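HUMAN: Please help interpret these tokens:
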Amino acid sequence: MPDRRATRTKGADRKRQLVDAAASLFVHRGYPQVSVADIARAAGVTAPTVYRHFDDKQSLLAAAVMSGVDHLEACTERALRGGDDAQALIEDVCALAVQRPQTASLWRWTSNYLTVEQNKQVALRTREVIGKWASALLAERPDLTEREAVQLAWAILSVSGSLTVHRTRMSSTRARDEIEKLIRRLLTLTPSAAPPIDAPPVISGMSRTRRDEILDAAASLWAERGYSEVGIDEIGRAVGIAGPSVYKHFPSKMAILVAIGHRSGARLEAGLMAAHSRSEDPAKILAALVDSYVTVITSTPDLSVSFNNSSVLAGQASAADLLDIQRRYVARWIDLLIQVDADLKRDQGAVAVHAALSIVNDAVRMRRGEKSPQFAARMAYLMKGVLAI
């Protein structure tokens, strides 16, 4: 007679294997670009095997996201079982950031593909985790307000998940040490002390064309619902024209996304030129770039849409120059940070820069506190704190 417990254990192990493979692929390649066959190959099984455990790709995504929340909850419970111990929490969060980096980032990248109920469940459980983190921070820093502690806790979550947004090669031990260093910098900050942001406002051209209207509508719709969920017809309706008329201005939906990326890139380039014109001090230039970046990403949806769809743009010949522009822009931040701290290695600089960018990128993507008048200033302050400038 077969051992039913052994069969159940084998089935549970297979499901975990599939969930882990799916989570990694979804984070690195983007949900729309991953098929069930891809997940099967990554897990070393056949597609029919996947369907024995999951109904479809979406159910795999939901399981992967929930698994990530499970790991966050387990990490939090383990670290705080003896009370509000911020130091123990930091150590466990940093270990999780290296061992399972997608835990802290998968939901933020894929929430548009979950159901309303699934998103509500993940949001509720994640907020409970953040609340526990905030309590631990308040025990460590009673001078903070509860709102400040929560804001720092969200920033810690962003930093801990930032290793998934770049491919810097670094040993697990060094990566963990770098993430811990950056999180400890966050713990010294007081968000209410954030000075006003020092960057010129984003200025649009005086004369607006139908092309501009299409780009604006597409960016707003994609920021709200995701690139794959909005078609040409909806973009046309948003500007008062028939869907096919959009093709008079852009040859494809992808061309619209590329144009949005170039428009946001031009704004960042303008900020880069302005920063260099104001100072020759690398720390001041980098601080100005932080202000410029935060101003651009909080003023229009263009930059967030472009960044969130980098996996869609990857492999597109028409987007090759755009991706190069983005890489060069980030590389300039890393160059400046290394000039500020001559002892810093390039891979360390890359980890720090991407961690800082993740703080505001995640907050904007999840619409977390962006309506607050102090939102931009606090984001810039947290980013500069992580970069130690």
